[in-house]
Specification:
The complex is a heterodimer of chains A (291) and B (328). Chain A has 291 residues and is mainly alpha-helical. Chain A has helices spanning 2-33, 40-57, 62-85, 92-114, 139-161, 163-173, 175-180, 185-211, 219-232, 237-254, 263-277, and strands at 129-132, 135-138. Chain A has a domain at 14-215. Chain A has a two-stranded antiparallel sheet with strand order 1-2. The longest helix of chain A has 32 residues, at 2-33. The radius of gyration of chain A is 19 Å and the shape is globular. In chain A, 51% of the residues are buried. Chain B has 328 residues and is mainly alpha-helical. A two-stranded antiparallel ribbon of chain B has the order 1-4. In chain B, strands 2-3 form a two-stranded antiparallel sheet. In chain B, strand 2 and strand 3 (157-159) form a beta hairpin. The relative contact order of chain B is 0.17. The chains are: A mainly alpha (291), B mainly alpha (328). At the A-B interface, helix 4, helix 9 and helix 11 of A face helix 6, helix 12 and helix 14 of B.
Chain lengths: 291, 328
Amino acid sequence: MNEALLEQVINGLMMGSIYVLVALGMVLIYGVMHVVNFAHGVLFTMGGYLGHFFYHRLVDSYVLAILLSMLTLGLIGVLLERGVFRPLAGNLRNQVIASLGLILFLENGVVALWGPNALQWKVATTERFVEIGELRFSQHHLGIILITLVLVAALGLYLKYTRFGTAIRATSQSQEAAIVVGIPVRRVQWTTFAIGAMLAGIGGALVGPLFLVFPQMGDVPLIKGLAGILLGGMGSVPGAVIGGLLLGVTESVSTLYLPTDYRDSIAFMVMVLILLVRPQGLFGQRMRGED
Amino acid sequence: MAVRRFLGWLLALSVTAALLSAPVWAAEHPYVLHMMVLICIYAIPAVGLNLMLGYSGLVSLGHMGFAGLGAYTAAVLMVDARWSFWSALAAGTVSAGLAGVLIGLICFRFRGHFFMIVTLAFGLLLHAIMNNWDAVTRGAAGFAGIPRPKPIAWGDTVIAFGQLPNFYYLALALTALVFALQYLVVRSNLGRILGAIRQDERLARSRGVNVLMYKTVVFSLGTALAGLGGVLHVSFLRVAAPASFTMLESINTVLIVIIGGAGFLVGPVLGAVVFVALPEGLRLANEWRLVIFGALLVLITLFAPSGLAGLLGRLWARLGAGSKEPGP
């Protein structure tokens, strides 16, 4: 029994790590631009497809493919910020509608280019295993958790101790005040968008070899990422990390007691419950001006 | 001015005549009629969303979840409980409207982003139920064997809805009814109050408007229309599938409203026409269809936020304006 539990906890941490990578990007972008990027899930999908493309067509190294995919997504992020989200700044409705347009454009663009079927992506780390007690996990599972932890730590240090990281935090707190003290808010915004897109990209490239690469692969991480953000508290970076991990583990452990069909519905329940009972989330201090 | 009014009537009359005579002029091309039924099926939920998104500023990202709720309610009643199409149509519409009241009351605790996220979550939840509750909804494989309405006998004439032209008239009549309802709502006091809420919710509240009540009313009206469209949809296809009521379908409905022109009476209908007919007109491969619509949606929000109806309206205003107005 305990082993089954441990297994589900580790599986949950792995899934949670994926949610964290998506949630972190969305929280950072929400902080500096006050927009929920509903197209973040398709950026995740792009990460998977680009990683697959680079791995099979360009370089023969998984690590290099991931890095290239991240870089490309960073560029895409800058383009989206400059071309779509900045011109619509201040108009929440149109920003959200434009992000819906991006979902249609990118998700179906992937179908048009690569076809509707899932692509296989064979990587050595999914075939090698690590034994913990009686349990066996693929290196890939543990690698995802580890890489996410490293990224989260690096991002935390970056936000806390570098000049630009401080500028990002300042812009999230108050855009007007940031402009007044001379922070280049526009540069902060496109950089943050690029960082967010890169995090989604690495998420997609990490998951691809485990669960195949397919056009809708970003839908679930988008929803779970949103749920993780709401759980942790909108706009709180540590909240997004803890919320995402908590959601992953809860879902995974629940499969021991509930039929697996309902695993995905847990996120929706959590979202609605949290919003009803504690709208600021577990760690959020306040709701941002939402009018 | 008089010219414009005359032209307006002429246009309305000729459109009506063309729509009513469609089974005659399209007799050789049943596919045209098929597409026109699809336009109606997309336009009805879109009118509902236009009332919410266009006239009241409520962006719901789970609209087609409610269409599915209505459709499956009607499907279960028709197939398992042997209800007639008409009572199932009413039941499907009402149940989607009631769900709109309940879910709306939860969603209206939030504004802005949070409202959209919660509507998205409910849309997904409804879809998950259709997909997973095998005992009632038959699960992911779909709910087959949904009947068309029974033939109506009127003296000697019998109207059978298995025939495409008759189903087309049914869809057209329902769309006309829904369109008239939209007109009545928008031109009534309710419409003005909704406009006030959209423009400044706090101001409306400070003037004594019961904002929550009016939002709930329009939300449930919108979801009821979604349900109506859903019932028509599954009766036309004779099968209900969860795939017809996904998040992407909800996004498509937003797309139809925005491309047509949110907050214009003809917006959702124009949008549905473009959504169904444009890919056929351009002979697009299916996989490029939504790619182009996605790009179009982004471009419209950037450059023409009032959509097709706004563009046409501006053209219309220019027409005949030169003769009457003395100029600046």
